[in-house]
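By way of example, we now present a protein record of this kind:
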Amino acid sequence: MTPLLDRLSRHGKDPELGAISAIHSGNIGDVIYALPTVRTLGVSHLLLNVCEDPGAGGRVLTEAMAGSLVSLLLDQPTIDTVDVVAAPIRVGGGFGYQARVSNLVSGLPLEHVSASVLGVDYVLDRFRLQPLERRHLVHAHAMAFGCRVDPARAWIDRTTAMAPERRIAVSVTPRYRNRSNERLAEILEGFGPVTLIGFRSELPNYFGIEGELREFTDAKELAVFLAECSVFVGAASFPSAIAEAMKIPRLVDLAGGLINAFPAGPNGWAMPEDSQEARHLLDGLARGDRSVASRVKSTVKSVTPAAVSTRRFTLEWQQAEGELIGTHRASAEAVLGRAPTRVRVDVPRMVDRPAGFALTVDARIGALEISNLRCVEGSKTIWTARFAEDLSVGGEAMLSSPPGVLRWLMAEDGADRVLLKVPDEILTRFRDVEASIVFDCRAPREREITQWTAREIVALGGALSRERANAERIQADLSLAHQKQADLEHRLRSVQASTSWRVTAPLRAVMGALRTGRGGAGHGE
């Protein structure tokens, strides 16, 4: 074990020499969504890093939580060893004694720490560096390492051979939910029996929902119970992640903000807004009715897919020092639609270091979104555009977007050019190897473009109102300062025009001469 990490406990057998290892710092649901990538990478030695940073990002993986995962993880086909470890870092809020007793962060998140420093092969925390908005967490983990996984297929085997009981498992938390308890109670009425999953301290989360509370301290025990239930109902949570991994029939209440843990594959449905539609779905899922989709088809509006078209992307650069846009070009074509399409532009080996890259998009389709842009050597990623400032578009058409994602409205004429702010040390590598620029691109539908634009208008309107208020305050302060200046100037002119000022003029002249004479004598001495 590398000295950076303290091993708290080991479970399973000791890892063999050369065993592939990976580390994850939670949350526990994220660990479940990482398992398809763990299997694809052939990881046999999994390390769980105890990390608590509720004040700096909302991530929590306590030693007890990590221990509750062990038995389920050791059941996975590639995992032979599970270590619970901790990075000995404590960040306190406050000073002196107060900082020692009130930890803001306990443990060290590892997405920015090199795997070689930690002594492992993979740092699974790097999924947090991927654009996460409306991208499934299974895909986010895989994309961090260039893997291909299928979230529509079960990745945890059901641990019971018994037929599911007509029992509904319910899990809700204060986070990542949309509907109130009253709405959930309305949807669940008449179905049952209902088991509420959680600890006694979490009972207030379920006020208004009838059911029997059941506590689970072991993930494998929870998985066995869920496999025996006919349906899972609830918000995105740890039980929801296990239900998703086993593809148990599930009806998930998706939050209105960041959506990245949604149902994928068979038997999984997002809870409809209308309670009656939700009850239709729940009835079909509880019955195990394979025709559940047709049962509610008449109440679900069909949407005609947006037209797709082939678009051309041209990468331009100037070698050595010079203008960014030069005569060197490489191109790629892609068929764009509402779903992200992978675009890869291969760059030939260069004689000299490029000054930078610009991507020209030939697309007149209203708006575009580029995400997960990176430089790669073969299958190895050498740089990822993680922040909004890593990408920029000339003109006035940029829209607010999450880090690493670029959204903009297309200009009416001429090609739009995206500037890639690649670090100098990465640009130098293009001189020595054949590399590529890879990114995901999609053309959103008109309704989504309208929502983007409306949010942008509201945000800009609010910012403009705040700046106007600041300008008014500054103008008021400036007016007050001008008034004070005018008052002082008036008082000065009044004094200078007074008889007393003229009478004392000779005395002031003599005093000034004496001060000058003393200063001169002193200087001469």
Summary: The chain has a mean pLDDT of 80.
